[in-house]
Design brief:
Elements: H1 23-26, H2 28-58, H3 65-96, H4 114-131, H5 137-149, H6 152-159, E1 182-184, E2 201-206, H7 216-221, E3 224-228, E4 247-251, E5 263-265, E6 270-272, E7 279-281, E8 287-290, E9 302-304, E10 310-312
Antiparallel strand pairs: 1-2, 2-3, 3-4, 5-6, 6-7, 7-8, 9-10
């Protein structure tokens, strides 16, 4: 628009360009070929779902990193093909078989009239007829089969294997026990209180963990962070007498989503989780001072034995890690 000219009240309607028919619109063989392609994609989804179910039972996670990696890969591939088949089939169906004529509708009042509603219902019916699902029996069967089977990829892990142990009490305990020595991770060497200097941080595990035949998840729950500070800096503890001469021990598993907490700032006594920046004050019962975590890190009660080695007074007094069902707090 040139300077000084009045703006038009509305722009002219450019209309639609000439419609260009697709090959499937004019060639029955191309139409049939496109239908077979859509059916094949839905069949791919069915095979993906079946593969997921087979992998769920035939390739369990096991207790080693390699077995977990293999199980996750098999499940991931099955889930990927199950979703990919449905998605590609829907796109190819819409682009090659459904009506592709451009349509435009004028804006109407927010509240439709009864006649408009009746017309909308008719449009839906026309859409169903346009899709050709009523006269394409094989295509309809492939669609129903893929959509009916796919939810199994979500439901099966939730239901669990036959005979799955649903006892949640196992989440409330770890391998720590009374008089269990604190040993350096990963060497397993017992540690004396005199070996820990003020400001130092030591990653510790229960004595005998390497020789233990406990499952990998049980070992992962037992990791602990040991910190020594000036006893005068300790503001509070989760239990009376749970520290020794300024040495405190807390679970390394973040109470947000279970990441390893390990970044200690000596001047502020803050402990940072690198995943989502939850920050805990070690000097004040590991209470949350920042971030999405909602609970302090559980404290491990510790003391020393007759030889001066650091030992646990008991297991944690509360479940470690993120929340789960039946957890009271």
């Amino acid at each position: 628009m040139r300077e000084g000219e009045d703006a038009p009240e509305k722009f002219p309607n450019p209309g639609f360009g000439p419609h260009r028919p697709r090959r499937a619109d004019v060639d029955p063989r191309a139409d049939k070929r496109a239908e077979r392609q859509v059916v094949a994609l839905f069949a791919l989804s069915v095979l993906g779902t079946i593969g997921f179910i087979v992998a769920y039972f035939a390739v369990p996670p096991g207790d080693t990193i390699a077995s977990m990696r293999t199980s996750n890969l098999a499940l991931g591939l099955g889930l990927a093909f199950a979703l990919l088949g449905i998605g590609l089939a829907a796109v190819h169906w819409a682009k090659s078989l459904m009506n592709d004529h451009e349509k435009a509708e004028d804006r109407h009042a927010q509240r439709s009239t009864d006649q408009t509603r009746a017309e909308a219902v008719q449009v839906l019916r026309d859409g169903v007829q346009d899709s050709g699902i009523g006269r394409r029996g094989v295509l309809k069967g492939a669609l129903v089969s893929s959509l009916a089977l796919f939810p199994l990829t979500i439901a099966l892990p939730l239901i669990g294997e036959v005979g799955e142990d649903w006892n949640v009490s196992k989440f409330k305990r770890t391998l720590w026990a009374k008089n269990k020595k604190l040993t350096i991770d990963p060497s397993g060497r017992p540690i004396k209180a005199a070996d820990v200097t003020i400001g130092s941080v030591v990653h510790v595990i229960p004595e005998g963990l390497d020789e233990s035949e406990a499952p990998l998840d049980e070992k992962a729950k037992a990791v602990v962070l040991l910190v020594r500070m000036d006893p005068r800096d300790i503001k509070s503890e989760q239990g009376e007498g749970w520290s020794y001469d300024g040495i405190v021990a807390f679970s390394k598993i973040c109470t947000h989503v279970g990441c390893p907490v390990a970044l200690y700032e000596q001047q502020t006594h803050h402990l940072l989780c690198p995943c989502h920046q939850s920050t805990f004050d070690v000097a004040d019962s590991a209470k949350v001072v920042f971030g999405p975590a909602k609970r302090p890190l559980p404290q491990l009660p510790i003391t020393v034995d007759d030889e001066g080695y650091l030992v646990a007074q008991s297991d944690f007094h509360e479940p470690i890690g993120p929340s789960f069902w039946e957890r009271l707090r």
